[in-house]
Design goal:
heterodimer; A: alpha/beta; 12-stranded mixed beta sheet; two-stranded antiparallel sheet; 13 helices; 33% helix; B: alpha/beta; 11-stranded mixed beta sheet; 3-stranded mixed beta sheet; 14 strands; globular
Chain lengths: 425, 400
């Protein structure tokens, strides 16, 4: 029997179930086929009018609908779909009886415009203020909106449906949230608090105000036509990210308990790391030290040397600043070894699934390990001469992959990295 | 139920406390206000709704750059301010070596909306003259570009990193009252197990917000017309939103002793639950089950609760409290209002403060639920049951 603890004496954490939903489709099979075929899930938004918006495309999940239409409702449904797939694969616990805690990366929740306008119309006047809104809000007429727009609502629904144990944790580390959810699960298992954890990242928040907010921060691509070509990580003519929806779910288990129940091991979360950047609310420290430190902490946590990483699933948002900063910092960490590491950004095809991205990309990283095939970075026609990554451009590449680093960086100085391997290291 | 201790758990001390609220700022001001049974509420500004407004605070003292203050909305300023007080209190303010590896877990909701923009759009819509593109155009033209950063949940932590340099790790938990129970639980578990040595944990809430009142009014949770203490709201249940920020510095005993830091108290245990509240009595049973996990010995003691005054949860909590009638109870909601994510850290802070001052603050309750207790406490139980979901309990003990 192989060792169930890592070189630091901690329980090894393995993945025994995965699920994913993106604009490319529902499920690992559909996503993997399209991802490796270089297909884009980005399209012109049809869910609401786009007149007056600077960015009119997104990676919306249009094949899932919820009633009433809310971003939080869609966020919840996407998480449920991804979790169902992950649990079916893991075959752990019983129906509605998952034997561990839930860590959920979820977009911040708030009252949304359709509901706000509904409330305004209920006042019956044409000149009113928040005080008037308050007077019609109570009495039970809008009672369902209280629950719907509580921050904890998505997690409590999932906890109820899947029977996770204890108090479910909803978290946000902005665009690094999905990675943080996995990190919290890894930590719980390493502490011995749990033998299994359900880690989910989900985001269904493509709505007018969300697009406007990122647009006002000049974060989004405005290359609307054709929408499939908008997301251009590592290209000279990249101009921002493309908002997207999706969910990724992972069942984590201690290697010991997974083996004891004869579960199929899909991969190992060998290391996690995070380091906060205190430079600016949206920009990285110009010296890149926090990102460099984040990657190094992750390598140290996994007990690996840079030479042992043979693929990087990049954050790769396609914003001018992110991609340049990601290259500069990665070059410092990996040095002479960097040219030997193929790098790719899933966001070229599925867009930026924000709160879900870290989890979605961790699933794709494990599929990369399983298939020994790296999905491409599409729209890579004009390489940025300042970014000397070995970008897996436009077509998928077969490669020997044993250890993947997946990076996530977010507003608020959030940096998180994961190292995923096929076998325990 | 989720526990947070392992057999070889390290002792965890509370070495820093920062509080700003409707009662003032800092530990002395709060201790005095509690002993004077002071309550600061406003029943005019949002009438008929009642709020506990933030006491006047000079934000410059903890957020020296006006540019930083401008980048934040009130909830972030309150939280960043309270975090600074906590770091000062722990004696680590400006200590780059420690702050650079300090872990942070913030429990957060979201920031305020631009009410004028909302009202203008809704009024136009009600008049029927909103074209399909109207919403997009107004939002694009009228929203302040940086407002989003003042609304994002994780940007309270972001601002604390920028202003105070807390930049080891940064995690933001969301989910109303339960978020801060879990923040304390996870921070404690990480330090006990050696995954972390020192952590900043807390939350902030701005209760003076019409948009939040609307959200809670959907569920008829707001206290209206006449203020009453938490235990005296039978027949007209609800909570009065309160503004407050509260942060704690938690660290392993070894780490604190190595740097010569003095403890206010030790945090022995934090447990959390998600009771199935559709079943009557579920909260009472959940609290009872958590009580047995705390390992509290003895029939008498002290207990600080964040009871909201909302129903049915407050009645279910009362049923639990009646079974532990030897415990002197204090409800923070009476004095501070309901501060959502901040209520549980506030309970922990007041427990640690009481232990360090050798007395529980006096009751502030005409119903008799709270009784005088003058003997020096050696441990205080902290209880939190969210207004709609999420329960938690902690044990804070004196360091001998």
């Amino acid at each position: 029997m192989s060792a169930v603890r890592d070189k630091f004496g901690r329980p090894i954490v393995v993945v025994t179930g995965m699920g994913v939903v993106t604009s490319l489709g529902a499920g690992k099979e559909d996503n993997w086929r399209k991802l490796t075929a270089g297909e884009s899930g980005i399209r012109t938004v049809t869910r609401f009018p786009v007149e007056g918006l600077k960015s009119t495309m997104a990676g919306t999940v249009d094949f899932v609908s919820v009633d009433p239409v809310t971003s939080t409702g869609l966020t919840e449904r996407l998480a449920e779909m991804a979790t169902q797939e992950a649990l079916a694969q893991a075959a752990i616990g019983a129906k509605a009886d998952f034997p561990g805690p839930l860590f959920l990366a979820v977009a911040p929740v708030e009252v949304e415009w359709p509901q706000r306008l509904e409330l305004g119309r209920a006042i019956g006047k044409t000149e009113f203020d928040y005080g008037d809104m308050l007077r019609v809000s109570g009495g039970g007429r809008f009672a369902a909106y209280h629950h719907r727009f509580m921050f904890g609502s998505v997690a409590s629904h999932l906890a109820d449906v899947f029977g996770t144990k204890g108090s479910p944790i909803s978290l946000s580390t902005a665009c690094a949230s999905g990675a943080t959810a996995i990190q919290l699960g890894v930590e719980a298992i390493r502490r011995g608090d749990a033998d299994a954890a359900l880690c989910v990242g989900t985001d269904g928040s493509v709505n007018p105000e969300a697009l406007v907010r990122f647009s006002l921060l000049s974060a989004l691509s405005t290359q609307n036509d054709p929408p499939q070509a908008a997301s251009k990580p590592f290209s000279k003519n990249r101009d921002g990210f493309v908002m997207a929806e999706g969910a990724g779910a992972m069942v984590l288990e201690s290697y010991e308990s997974a083996m004891a129940r004869g579960a199929k091991i899909l991969g190992v979360v060998a290391g996690c790391g995070e380091l906060t950047d205190s430079f600016h609310r949206t920009r990285s420290s110009p010296d890149g030290k926090p990102i460099i430190g984040c990657m190094r902490k992750t390598l140290a946590d996994a007990g690996l040397e840079p030479e042992q990483i043979d693929h990087i699933n990049a954050h790769g948002t396609a914003t001018p600043e992110n991609d340049k900063m990601e290259y500069n910092t990665t070059a410092v960490v990996f040095g002479e070894h960097l040219p030997k590491i193929p790098v790719s950004s899933n966001k070229s095809m599925v867009g930026h699934t924000i709160s879900a991205a870290g989890a979605v990309e961790a699933v794709f990283s494990l599929l990369t390990l399983e298939h020994q095939r790296i999905p491409p970075t599409i729209n890579y026609e004009i390489p940025d001469p300042a970014i000397l990554f070995d970008v897996v451009g436009n077509t998928a590449r077969d490669a020997k992959v044993t250890a993947v680093m997946s990076n996530s960086f977010g507003f608020g100085g959030q940096n998180a990295s994961l190292i995923l391997t096929r076998e325990p290291v | 139920m989720t526990e947070s201790t392992s057999p070889a758990a390290k002792e965890v001390w509370i070495t820093g406390i920062g509080i700003v609220s409707s009662l003032g700022e800092g530990l002395d001001a709060h201790w005095d206000a509690l002993n004077e049974k002071k309550i600061n509420f406003d029943d005019k500004r949002f009438a008929p709704y009642i709020v506990h407004p933030l006491a006047p605070v000079s934000f410059d003292a903890q957020i020296p750059k006006k540019g930083d203050q401008r980048q934040m909305e009130a909830w972030q300023r309150i939280g960043t301010y309270a975090a600074g007080l906590a770091l000062d209190s722990a004696g680590v303010k400006g200590n780059k070596e420690i702050l650079g590896r300090m872990d942070m877990i913030v429990a957060a909701g979201g920031g305020e909306r631009d009410l004028a923009v909302d009202e203008a759009i809704m009024n136009a819509d009600a008049k029927g003259n909103s074209s399909p593109a109207f919403l997009n155009e107004r939002l694009m033209n009228d929203l302040r570009p940086t407002l989003f950063l003042a609304q994002l949940s994780n940007l309270l932590a972001g601002n604390i990193a920028i202003v105070h340099g807390v930049c080891g790790t940064s995690r933001t938990f969301m989910g109303e009252e339960a978020a801060s129970i879990d923040a304390a639980r996870i921070a404690l578990a990480r330090i006990e197990s050696g995954q972390s040595e020192i952590a900043l944990v807390g939350a902030a809430h701005n209760g003076e917000r019409s948009d939040l009142l609307v959200l809670y009014e959907f569920g008829d949770f707001n206290l209206k017309v006449t203020y009453a203490p938490v235990w005296q709201r039978e027949g007209r249940s609800g909570f009065a939103l309160g503004s407050a920020g509260c942060f704690l510095v938690l660290e392993s005993r070894e780490h604190a002793e190595a740097r010569g830091a003095k403890p206010y108290a030790k945090l022995t245990k934090v447990v959390a639950d998600l009771a199935k509240r559709k079943e009557p009595g579920a909260v009472t049973r959940s609290l009872e089950a958590m009580w047995s996990k705390l390992g509290v010995a003895g029939e008498t003691g002290q207990l600080i609760t964040g009871a909201t005054g909302a129903e049915p949860v407050t009645s279910e909590e009362k049923a639990f409290l009646r079974k532990h009638a030897g415990y002197a109870v204090r409800a923070t909601g009476t004095m501070f209002g309901h501060t959502l994510e901040t209520q549980f850290p506030l309970g922990l802070a007041l427990a640690a403060l009481s232990l360090s001052r050798g007395a529980l603050f006096p009751p502030n309750d005409p119903t008799g639920t709270e009784v005088e207790k003058t003997d020096a406490p050696d441990k205080i139980v902290v209880v939190g049951a969210g207004h709609w979901q999420g329960e938690g309990m902690a044990l804070v003990e004196a360091v001998k």
